[in-house]
Amino acid sequence: MEKFFELKKNGTSVSTEVIAGISSFLATSYIIVVNPSVLSQAGLPFPAVLTATVLVCFFSSLMMGFYAKNPILVAPGMGLNAFFTYSVVIGMDIRYEVALGAVFWSGIVFFLLSVFNIRTYIIQAIPRPLRYAVSAGIGLFITLIGFSNAKFVVSDPATIISGNTLDAALVTFIIGLLVTAVMVAKNVKGAILFGILFTTLISYPLGRWWGITDDVTPLIHFNGIFAAPDFSLFFKLDLINSLTLAVVPVVFAFVFTDMFDSLSTFVGIAEAANLLDENGEPKNIKRSLLTDAFATTFAGLAGSSPGTAYVESAVGVEAGGRTGLTAVVASLLFLPFVFLSPLLSAVPAIATAPALVLVGVFMIRPVVKINWASLDEAIPAFLALVLIPFTHSITHGIIWGFLSWTVLKFCVGKRKEITPSLLIIDLFVILALIVEK
Fold it and tell me: Which residues span the membrane (predicted)?
């Protein structure tokens, strides 16, 4: 183990790596409940998505540890699962089998981009302000979904959306949000997971106290603890219909969003922990990206939204994790949850709403890196930022962010900033607009 992971060379030990792996797991484990909760709204069976989620976390993080040798966990991505459910299946009325096929093909595309190093040219072509804006826009999108799931924000024919009146559901959500926020602010390890558990526990007595029925406040329905894994979504993807022109924008959005997520995570954690190679690049970046591509491809086969590197892995890095052993330890901790679908299915949607809101807080941080004084950069970034939640579509945020960037740079005389690679991307986004339903 010492020789394989080079523990002494990286200034760490087995005990430190184990503690770091546990810390990363606690910070990331909320996805075990949140991902099935989100995807089940697209018609996918909760137990089957839970099985797929756990297996994506297990195999992908294990691969990250043994193959890429990085202390970074891989799991179904927040934002990607929201896009899958609300934009693709519900918004575009695409069957979830076709959406799973799009996930699979996006993984294949990501894999090819990584193998042939094309990702380097793509990343260089993507303006940094747009990267920051897309990340923040996805954060706002997830937050809106959290507020909507809690019925904190509701539709209104006069004002489009509005706040809801106080009832048992809102009391449960507000208490859960505040308690979870306090734990997050105090840097409690596993704060979001503990927040989900706390909100679940209080949802039942508050619902009964207010005399509210299940259709208003989701109450706990306890159907046992253990069950065999549900593999009913395995190989349910539609590989043929997911290759039609109408689904091209979906694959495009999955590829680019996954690439933004993974690269920003790898770069951010590598810089913070000094996990850099001799060229100053993130250590084993190519193998890490190949692992990320595997996670997305496997997710499509297993029945989940795309997998991606998790920024919450920074918790384990802060605890001293420096090698792939951290990811291996965390991956093993995910595996037992594949047998706990009856217990975890008792978690109501309202219990995951505070987690969705607070994930938005973490994802909006990059907006401070945008130069808002430079309007030819600020306007495209702003459009990408607000159109994602306003249109309920990550695709539209990306499309109009790129196109407006190109038009403004051309018109203000900064044509050197419009690279050939960017023009190729623009052609793809125009194609996405043309073939979109």
Answer: 12-32, 44-66, 73-92, 98-118, 130-148, 168-185, 192-211, 231-256, 325-344, 350-368, 380-403, 418-435
